[in-house]
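To the structural biology subgroup,

Please find below the input and predicted structure for Lipoprotein, which we are adding to the shared reference set this quarter. The sequence is reproduced verbatim from the submission form. If anyone notices a discrepancy with their own records, reply to this email rather than editing the shared folder directly, so we keep one authoritative version.
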Amino acid sequence: MRKLMLTGGLLMLTGCAGFGLPHHDPSQAWVDLDSQQEDTALQALQVDAKASTDKRYFEVEPGSHELTVRYQFPVDPANIGPDAEPLWRDCQLHVKFKDFNAGERYQLQAGNIGFRPWAKLYDQQRKVVGQGAPAGCQRT
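Predicted structure (tokenized):
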């Protein structure tokens, strides 16, 4: 019985591994997405106004691109009023960068200060190479 449970557990882990991120194409630049808080969501929407193929990351050709992301986050009640409930925001941000390099990994991080979302694009050396510009928010 113990062997059966162990084998089943390993098979489940192997199956889950198949749903991970695809292999990085060395002729492309890769952009990982990272939201700063646990209860938030950051999704890839568009590259140069064309729909992204996967919401978990961007893979772009070398050169200049505008990335559009969707960032969903709760606004803490302390920023709203004493008896308020958290208010959920659904925002889009544009991040422009003119020098994506083939084979390099970048990281796009997002967070918020009160009602205002922010996004920063980092290169492999953790240098900020781009900043997000808000493109509209709505309450959810």
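Summary notes: Helices lie at 2-17. The beta strands are 29-35, 41-47, 50-51, 57-60, 63-75, 87-100, 105-113, 116-122, 128-139.

Regards,
Lab coordination
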